[in-house]
Amino acid sequence: MGLPDEGARRQVLLDNLVSGNVAYQSLCPGIGLCRLNAGRQAGLALQIAPEALQPGQLDQVLKRRFAHAIGFDGCFVYLDAKGSLVIWHAWSPKGHSHDDIVSRLLSLARLEALDVHRAP
User: Fold this and answer.
1) Which of 28, 63, 76, 77 is the most buried (most CB within 10 A)?
2) pLDDT of residue 118
């Protein structure tokens, strides 16, 4: 589970997401959450830098995404220009809760240990 202050740091990230401000939270070296727009659609992205990727992690994420299509509906997986693995989900005030989106992104990447809102 995350560090004790992670909940407060996540709340700052989510407040910035809602307000439209730049938002980034490092979860550990090479892995972070950020606000990332796709066109006009605001979204939340989990970014995993190439040096933080585990061997075969991209393949595992893609297989998991399509094997559990309903559970991960709305999650989009791609490599950015820097070779980082990005898992993106649209954010809407009427849609999933922020914590639910973050939990889904981390779960898809098999990084549940970084989820401060996951049940123990």
Assistant:
1) 77
2) 59
Q: Is residue 120 one of the residues assigned to a domain?
A: no
Report pLDDT for 112. Answer: 92
Is residue 49 a part of any domain in this protein?
A: yes
The percent of residues in the chain predicted with pLDDT above 70, rounded, is: 85
Which pTM value belongs to this model?
0.83
Q: Which residue pairs from 13-19 have beta carbons closer than 8 angstroms and sit at least 24 positions apart in sequence?
A: 14/98, 14/99, 17/42, 17/44, 17/91, 17/98, 18/93, 18/98
Q: Distance of CA 55 to CAs 12, 60, 80, Å?
A: 32, 9, 18
Which amino acid, one-letter code, is at 113? A
Model confidence at 6: pLDDT above 60: yes
Total domains, the chain? 1
Decide if 1 is inside a domain: no
Q: Which residue type, as a one-letter code, is found at position 5?
A: D
The Cα 49–Cα 31 span in angstroms is 6
- Asked whether the beta carbons of 30 and 55 are under 8 A apart, the reply is no
Flag whether pLDDT at 95 surpasses 70.
no
- Residue 75's CATH number: 3.30.1460
